[in-house]
Design brief:
Blueprint: E1 9-13, H1 18-31, E2 34-41, H2 46-49, H3 52-59, E3 63-68, H4 70-84, H5 95-113, E4 118-120, H6 129-140, E5 146-147, H7 158-167, E6 181-184, E7 189-192, E8 222-229, E9 232-236, E10 239-240, H8 243-256, E11 261-267, E12 273-279, H9 281-297, H10 300-319, H11 325-337, E13 343-350, E14 353-360, H12 368-371, H13 383-391, H14 393-400, H15 405-413, H16 431-434
Parallel strand pairs: 1-2, 1-4, 2-3, 4-5
Antiparallel strand pairs: 6-7, 7-12, 8-9, 8-13, 9-10, 11-12, 13-14
Length: 435
């Protein structure tokens, strides 16, 4: 931001951690502005939020606004991600990625409501989050300039930030010894840094916070039944539950069974590889249940279309372009597909695994009469011959025209011989040729 256009009131996305604790006084000192702290409650837990308003004010903020986003987070962001089946690079359930758009949206709303003329975030210049926050800002409030302290200040280390706060007598619970960098919300918790920065190091057991080791999980499996209406879970084990309570219970069930641990070296949007360790116990169960249901009710082409679309939808979530026409258009397809996702699924949790083992739906396309290996009156096996001949016709024509190199190679290697060892083809030869 240009010094010629200094802001008078800045809304900062505030977490209460070391970075944002430094950002508030830094903004006041650098720009002489008022600071409004926006705290987004996405289910990170009471411990993270305890006393956070008082802390923000003590740090220099004029006002601190805590916004409860848990229900919106589930209904508007998490459930659509589950229905889409989007997973980044085959494994990451995108707990951090999916939360950023709703946090940034809430920040914009608070900024506009309190008369702020600038936005600020505490994302580093190496991570994905800076793109996610600023893409949301651009989509919802392009008129507000953005301040990104990590790109312009001279506080380049944890030690420097702690010294900065100490000089100003600003209390901070953080210490110079920080083993891991973590991000938590109701969907997951992520872990980075420390020993994890070397991909040859297996995650030590002290990394994990909300799940037991699969080897220490109970020896008996635990079954969970989820009931769905249009792809959204409504009941857990037959009991109606709101989205927030349902996920909380799934997290407890998955956590005690060692479900949802992921260790991945992912490709960040900014171009580098990053090693992340994630715990998503309840989310893993929920995603498995939706997949189990769609296996029953979606026809082949619709299911395959959903799977292909999910790859691009995962990029949108990971890259942070949620508030875009592309996401809206893709979601319209997923929403249409979800209209038949009604029914019950039982997911079996056992020593780190979550697997759909039972499924039923009023919209099921599974018909015992068609699928049985026993005698039936609805399927004539003789019809398969014509189907296969037509299905394979392009391949047949290609081979007959001599255009299939594999067929030509096999034919050449298996030409009939006259039996004399001369190497002839056995056809059109003469005695003289064999003399």
């Amino acid at each position: 931001m240009s010094n010629s256009k200094k802001p008078t009131r800045v809304c900062v996305a505030y977490s209460g951690g070391l970075d944002t604790s430094c950002i508030i006084p830094w903004l006041v000192e650098t720009y002489g502005c008022e600071v409004i702290a926006c705290v987004a409650d996405v289910g990170q837990g009471a411990r993270e939020l305890e006393g956070i308003e008082e802390k923000a004010i003590r740090t220099g903020a004029k006002q601190c606004v805590v916004v409860d986003l848990k229900k919106q987070f589930m209904e508007e962001f998490v459930f659509p991600m589950c229905i889409s089946g989007s997973v980044y690079e085959g494994r990451y359930l995108m707990g951090t990625s999916i939360a950023r758009p709703i946090i940034a949206r809430a920040q914009v709303e608070v900024a506009l409501a309190t008369g702020c003329d600038a936005l600020c975030h505490g994302c580093t210049g190496k991570g994905n989050d800076q793109v996610r926050f600023e893409s949301t800002y651009a989509s919802l409030a392009p008129q507000l300039p953005v301040i990104a302290p990590w790109r312009i200040w001279n506080l380049k280390s944890r030690e420097a930030m702690l010294a900065y706060l100490k000089e100003r007598n600003i209390p901070c619970a953080a210490s110079a010894e920080k083993i891991y960098s973590r991000d938590a919300n109701m969907w997951h918790i992520s872990h980075e840094g420390g020993e994890l920065e070397d991909p040859w190091n297996a995650p030590p057991e002290d990394v994990w916070m909300i799940s037991v080791s699969p080897k220490d999980a109970p020896d008996a499996h635990e079954d969970v039944m989820l009931t769905f209406a249009k792809g959204r879970p409504t009941h857990l084990n037959g009991k109606a539950m709101d989205p927030v309570g349902l996920l909380a219970e799934l997290n407890r069930i998955g956590g005690r069974n060692g479900v949802g641990r992921v260790d991945i070296c992912e490709n960040r949007l900014v171009g580098m590889k990053s090693r992340g360790v994630y715990e998503t116990p309840g989310g893993t169960i929920l995603m498995e249940a939706v997949r189990g249901l769609e296996q029953l009710v979606l026809d082949r082409e619709t299911l395959h279309f959903r799977e292909k679309l999910a790859l691009d939808f995962a990029k949108i979530i990971y890259n942070g372009t949620w508030f875009s026409p592309t996401r809206e258009a893709m979601w319209a397809s997923f929403e249409a597909i979800a209209q038949v996702l009604d029914g019950d699924v039982v997911v079996r949790c056992y020593k780190g695994r979550a697997e759909a083992v039972k499924r039923r739906s009023p919209n099921s396309l599974f018909h015992h009469g068609f699928a049985t290996f026993g005698e039936d009156e609805v399927y004539d096996h003789k019809h398969s011959e014509g189907f296969i001949r037509l299905f394979s016709l392009p391949l047949r024509i290609r081979a007959l025209l001599g255009l299939n190199p594999d067929a030509k190679k096999i034919a050449a290697a298996n030409k009939p011989s006259c039996g004399t060892g001369c190497g002839c083809t056995g056809s059109g030869t003469s005695t003289k040729q064999h003399a």
